[in-house]
């Protein structure tokens, strides 16, 4: 690729589609390239509700952060945070409390750079480049230790990112490790790609999933039961359990939104035991 973009960090390969940029495009953002847009159009052709799924997921994220803020949570660790777009976690959390702390984490250098530039001048929101599959690199990151008080509740957000973690990378163990230092009244937020409701939909979704095999982050689709099984006994699922994003505490003006069974979401609470690192 011969194009050059001032905002692209050195060493980033923009000749292959990337999950953060594809999702940015799906939500109407501008930090994406021809290869991401073409990828998205192919996926959408196979799976026409893909954009609605992306929007339902994003709307869930906002509602979950608002709900947790109402429960008194003031620290948010947003892993797989993506390229900033509408309704970013710090905007929602700091509306409830301007001193709410938010640490964004992403593996994509462009997502990290765009977040950093958006957060300039915000003393309570930061971003680091790190990998969900290496939880100690997040928990022990100097910026995380500096920003968070682990004697207070923390919400760990894994929103539209666990489906990039195959079983071989032990997602159950990763979530357990991330939960270990958290005190009770801490929470884990999950959203995850699930199977479509109809055989035709599942076939179309399977074709779109195969497209992702060509990206650095192939996708794993998990059923409700498989998503619930990502949690070991250090977390308990909060009502309504694992449900479609549109069914999770919808705002009154969202009650007419079409159900999106492929966006599975859940909120879980850390069980009341002594925390320890
Ligand atoms: C679909 S976006 C979701 C963005 C945001 N959480 C949301 O739901 O609106 C998924 C993000 O996860 C990031 N990601 C994928 N694998 C990751 C990993 N192992 N560690 C950290 N981030 C990862 C991608 O770079 C991308 O920005």
Structural key phrases:
single chain; 277 residues; alpha/beta; Rossmann fold; eight-stranded mixed β-sheet; 10 helices; 8 strands; globular; binds S-adenosylmethionine; methyltransferase activity; methyltransferase; SAM_dep_MeTrfase_SAV2177_type; transferase
Structure description:
One of its GO terms (biological process) is methylation. The protein is α/β, with parallel strands linked by helices and 277 residues long. It has a single domain, classed as Vaccinia Virus protein VP39 (Rossmann fold), CATH 3.40.50.150. It is built from ten helices and eight strands. It has helices spanning 19-26, 34-46, 50-70, 89-96, 109-119, 135-139, 142-147, 171-179, 199-212, 224-228; strands at 75-79, 101-106, 125-129, 155-159, 187-193, 235-237, 243-244, 263-270. Strands 1, 2, 3, 4, 5, 6, 7 and 8 form an eight-stranded mixed sheet that branches. Helix 1 (19-26) packs across helix 2. It starts with 18 loop residues before the first helix and ends in a 7-residue tail after the last strand. The model has no long low-confidence stretch (mean pLDDT 93). The structure holds S-adenosylmethionine.
